[in-house]
Design brief:
The radius of gyration is 45 Å and the shape is rod-shaped. Helix 3 packs across helix 4. The protein has a 3-stranded antiparallel β-sheet with strand order 1-3-2. The protein is 62% helix and 5% strand. It starts with a helix and ends with a strand. With 273 residues, it is mainly alpha-helical.
């Protein structure tokens, strides 16, 4: 019995020892599967998650600002559309000849105005937009005396209809207003000649400038825009039957007056009464 008991105890010890070895092997396998360096990897993952959370929060803040800016952008779009309608209404009453002259004198600006598209309007301060008064516009640049463009006193449909059918003939509103644009162009060219210094003019042009200066100082012409009958060379106003009829109509409507100085027939631009 003593031998059997001793053998049983030894088997129990060996079994416990084997069990302990198996546990230690499992611990070694587990340590190899999850080394100590994994702690650093987990820290990097945590830092990345925090950075992503900050980015998500920034995106949410940006979206909230965009949503708050939508009503302000709608107000600005409505105001722009109203202004566009006003400009279109004004443009529809301007003679096509004048538009061609403006495009020819500044083609770059015309292309930019036609090609520009509205930019996105965000991050407006609502209080500044609705409560603060608009800043006063900058003062217009001062122009040299004699260089200001002559005014364009176009006629209206009512004025044209008020004429007798004999005087009106086949004239249209567009033809008459295009002629007014031409007359303003003649007067502006003469104003440039009068104000130009001698060193900038050729000899034959200088003689004409002196003659125009004498006419400009004449009583009845002084301080007014004028051109000579010899200046009438188109493109819309010419010295043909139609051009003479247009001059008659404009003289009747008070847009021009005429005076003879020397051998020149001087046509003065007049403000309608």
């Amino acid at each position: 019995m003593d031998m059997k008991g001793s053998g049983s105890s030894l088997d129990s010890i060996i079994s416990s020892f084997n069990t302990r070895i198996t546990e230690l092997q499992e611990l070694v396998i587990g340590r190899n599967m999850y080394p100590a360096s994994s702690i650093t990897d987990l820290s990097a993952v945590d830092a990345s998650l925090k950075a992503m959370e900050l980015q998500v929060q920034a995106i949410k803040d940006r979206l909230r600002e965009e949503i708050e800016a939508i009503p302000k952008a709608k107000k600005l779009i409505d105001a722009s559309l109203r202004q566009q309608k006003k400009l279109q209404s004004i443009c529809s009453h301007v003679p096509s000849n004048l538009l061609d002259r403006l495009a020819a004198s500044n083609p770059g600006s015309s292309r930019r105005l036609m090609s520009e598209t509205p930019k996105q309007c965000t991050n407006f301060d609502n209080e500044k937009l609705e409560e603060e008064p608009a800043a006063p516009p900058p003062p217009p640049p001062k122009e040299k005396k004699g260089r200001a463009p002559p005014p364009l006193w176009f006629i209206t449909v009512d004025e044209l209809d008020s004429l007798s059918s004999y005087m009106r003939g086949r004239l249209t509103l567009e033809k008459v207003n295009a002629a007014i644009s031409d007359m303003a162009m003649y007067a502006e060219a003469n104003a440039h000649l009068i104000a130009a210094p001698k060193k900038k003019l050729a000899e034959n042009i200088w003689e004409k400038a002196l003659e125009l200066r004498d006419i400009a100082m004449t009583e009845g012409v002084k301080g007014k825009y004028f051109f000579l009958e010899t200046d009438i060379k188109g493109p819309s106003l010419k010295l043909d039957n139609t051009g003479k009829a247009i001059l008659t109509v404009l003289r009747h409507l008070g847009r021009i007056s005429e005076i003879r100085i020397g051998h020149h027939r001087v046509i003065i631009l007049s403000k309608p009464q």
